[in-house]
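#structure-requests
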Amino acid sequence: MNKRVEIYSLFQPTFGNRPLQYIGRNDVIEQFMAGLREPVGSRNRCTLFLGQRGMGKTALLLELSDRAQDAGYVVARVTAHEGMPQAIIEQFQLNGSKFFNDDKRKLTGVSAGALGFSLGLTFSEAAERQYGFRAKMSLLCDRLAEKSKGALILIDEVRTSAAMREVAAAYQELVGDRKNIAIAMAGLPHAVSSVLNDSVLTFLNRAVKVELGLISTQLIRAYYERAFRSIDIKASDEVLDRAALSTRGFPYLMQLIGYYMIQYTPEGGTVTDDVMNKAEKAAMKDLEDNVFKPILSPLSDNDRLFLQALARCGGTATTAKLQAKLGKKGPAIQPYRKRLIEAGIIEAPRRGELVFAVPYLSDYLSGHS
């Protein structure tokens, strides 16, 4: 790999991208991959990943895609939208076609052994015209099974929609038909919550749910050390400690700080305190623009007041203390508490206590109250 390309591949602080190495989610990845090795219908073959912006959901799906392909699966990876069912079909046809390069048969209409296909994974005109998403997926699963391949659907930014209902209903039926298929979905907590509460999608409540939280700063420090050594940038133990602790375990911030440390350090140079000051400042600006503002934008005025009260308490507060700050008694704050927990903005580590789930959001709100 070109050295300059390698340098900027170490950190990819753009949503939808990932670095050369993916860290901090090995247990999550192994759990899902174990599900792919389990019998068809295993609960572990259907997983929902929940996480706020910047927790690495998209990068995780990309990693699962690579691992699943190595394990013998053809993958259809899409972002949720109204045309999603057709996009999934097209992804399977595109990504699975290479396994049928030796298929020279030309069939028309319905034919035994290749029902509904004209060549490879291309549907016959009759099948294309007559069959819907569920039937086409069944045919594709059978066709892929001829090459000992399974089918994995990955859906990013999952939300309730007619398309989501169609895909989920088809998946449930395909599992019932014992097709070798699995599905993993990722989304914001409040969006996933609405999916689970949808009357058509209730079966997804049986899916494995994984909340993507913060990752170990020790893992981050180790990655920084390896990354900078690989590109001949020097960083002292003190700088590495500072950089790792500055991320507070937030995956997106890990990418930002690492990226700007490289940006502000000459090739073959040393990461100085001045470089760190610039890197942290630039990273925080991106964090505010790309995470905090989108998180806060859809909230009501009362939700914001609740968060500002929590920020004034230092980011951690008992329910009683928040009630006193807001001048409310009894159950009056419960609706805000419930909504903000479901949105993944705050969490309750212990009964009667609330904290911010997103690092630095408390500091941001304190400076903008």
